[in-house]
Amino acid sequence: MAASSHRAAPEHTHPDQVSVLTALSALADPVRLTLVRELAGSTEWSRSCGSFDVPVGKAALSHHFAVLRGAGLVEQRDEGPKRVNRLRRTEFDARFPGLLDLVLHTPDPNP
Description:
Elements: H1 20-28, H2 30-40, E1 47-48, H3 58-70, E2 74-79, E3 82-87, H4 89-95, H5 99-104
Antiparallel strand pairs: 1-3, 2-3
Helix pairs in contact: 1-3, 2-3
């Protein structure tokens, strides 16, 4: 019997289930912050996982997206062979008003 070519659907955590420390921890990593910032400037569902310019391999990128999903920041879905992403801006802002704006508009300390 051939192995299934379907990937398991990613698990998502709703922002209502996330503590502020979990959210801050997810946003504290420079790679994850880059992913969130790029998603914030993109149309929903327009960015596949491989479209981000970050200095990590596929396995590490998958881990970073898993952390962002677990923090309620990102939602993902499969479209054919690609996994596409959206920033859960509305839901996250309802849970933590102003936090995402603050993080997105704070300059990097080490540009």
